[in-house]
Amino acid sequence: DAGVIQSPRHEVTEMGQEVTLRCKPISGHDYLFWYRQTMMRGLELLIYFNNNVPIDDSGMPEDRFSAKMPNASFSTLKIQPSEPRDSAVYFCASTSGRTSYEQYFGPGTRLTVT
Amino acid sequence: AQSVAQPEDQVNVAEGNPLTVKCTYSVSGNPYLFWYVQYPNRGLQFLLKYITGDNLVKGSYGFEAEFNKSQTSFHLKKPSALVSDSALYFCAVRDIRGDFGNEKLTFGTGTRLTIIP
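Output (structure tokens, whole complex):
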């Protein structure tokens, strides 16, 4: 298996621009998670999906952030408009839930907003 | 609510010596516990987990961890450290309260392990 795939690996954008991060979970996994990692705040859970349905989005910082999962093999995290404080590494992870428990992480997208 | 504490931001160990990275947790029910490792510019990589059964669990790269319910701890250990073990280590917990669908992991703040040659 190729593991969790994220794109792009690096994104540099200007404040105010729209940013879309993409994730392909491991085939057969029915849970997908979006995390953000910064030096100041550590690793934060933003949102997670089960069977393509958002279950908990309490970690989404504000309305500028949105996430979708149109099918079992694809999810997006969108920031519109982006701000410099959104600069972070964004990780996607997946798991098969009660049969596996551990989450498998993608390589991350390093976002820099100038 | 579930929480995890990693009391040490940084641990330095001489190569060949045993290492311990500490983790304590708090949950309402029974815990599922995990250790992850993160190398520079990489995603988190699963090391080992405790779900049930034997309190001593063995994982990748010679690491092991001991679940101690009375002390609510899950310390990561390795008998002989390698320079290549230098990385950022995260402990995580999931609270199994019987409400299915709660798949959230709560991560600690991480401990940076440096193995000194």
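The longest strand of chain B covers residues 87-96.
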